[in-house]
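Worked Example 4.2. Consider the chain below.
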Amino acid sequence: MSTQEHLALLGELIMPRLDIDSYTKDARYAENISGLVRQHRAGGFCVFGGSAAAVARVVKELQELAAASQGNPLLFSCDCEFGLPMRLTEGGTEFPDAMAMAKTGEPELAYKAAQAIGREMRAIGLSWNFAPVADVNSNPHNPIINTRSFGERSEIVAEYASAFVLGLQSEGVAATAKHFPGHGDTSVDSHRELPVITRDWESFRNLELPPFQALIKHGVSSVMTGHLAAPKLAAHFGAPVGEQNLPATLSHTLTTSLLREQLGFDGVIVTDALEMRAITQHFGADEAALLAFEAGADVLLMPHDAASAFDVLVDALDSGRITMNEVQKRAGRIRELKEKTRIEISSIQPERLQEYADEHALLAEEIARKAIELIGNIHLNGAKMIILTDDRPEAIHKSKMFEELMSPFVSGIEIITPAKWAEGTVQMDRDTILVTFHRARGYVNPKMDVVSVPSIVRAMAVLLGTIAPRGLILFGSPYLDSEFQMSPKFVMKTFSESNASMVATAERLQNLP
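Applying the procedure from the previous section yields the following structure tokens:
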């Protein structure tokens, strides 16, 4: 095998980040990306940002470059748990979160939503979805999973995640079970630091692992290993002491001994993003990429420096630290995935999103309506609404939309952001209906997120003391009602902060008997 063939195989193992806006606006960034295709033979990219039309243009351009320079197609991935709007700035249908899908009681709706997401992804050249989340959200204080999970019960997560996988893959898009071996019982966001799960083998076997086993049984194309340490689980499978506290991403015991051998998974194993702080705070970027390969990962997702990660693998191959036999096996799995999900350049047609729009919007609305959970009786006469949201532009936009929809039906509405709360002018009483917009999210600058929606809700609960607000309407996280000493007259939970959930809730409130 020639040197160029060796390099092409190594390049398959690396999937850098591709920021669409930077690519289209920054010539230097675009040249760096092109260089990863030409010189480093990158096997694909993980897409962030940009409009659907811009993504389609960039994907076409890079596929043509790859065809001319290396002869192998690229594989484009994206986090589209609830659709293209999870990562894109414009285009595609925003579906309610996974937990909302499960609250409908109809797995068929999860299947149909995944089909719709798959159709929209392929229309713009994306064929690998880092979804669904197979984590069981057993910890209500989990800052990063929350409504991204299908629920708190293992069997529910297994059932709905399986439906999602089957729907997505029926459209020719690879699905991903994440975050192995289970990120649900953490109180730490791995985008910021390394979570440690202290459950033993019995707990993992009974709660965390069944959804992954179900998805493997249903033929999920890939599994994403999580940046979380599970020392008791690793010890159970014989990990040496020095390995027991490693994140699963870098643990040979958890990635290979457990996932590949014990659970029998023979598809593609992809790391969570290697640029996340759970990795970068504890390991050098180059060291992490090599450790992930040695752990058993096929795809090194978004290393801090993709070109450097490529060079590290080349050096490791030359020195004998890794073998060509292993490289060939890993690259072979990736190329098989590429072949199964291949999209011809001529079939990348973003205008098809408009053709799908009405049908997919109706599906999103159906899920949103059926997911709403109401406890108690709603009375709007004389009520004042306080809408609490964080500073995300999309959440503020949705808050204003909800204000516009509901203002004719209540005596007053005030939108509160963390900055407004800090002014100390918010007034609440027994006629207050508190509306919260709160979605678990990663990639947050800790300095910009000191005052969170949950922390403000806790402060509000203290302020009210034994006085119960008239009602709570929870968009996104369904757990905030537990902060109040006294039960409100009603609690409405949507399990999502999607546009469809917001409109469905407003319609429900506007049409009270």
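The CA atoms of residues 21 and 169 lie 28 Å apart. Residues 352-371 form the longest helix (20 residues). Compare this with Example 4.1 before moving on.
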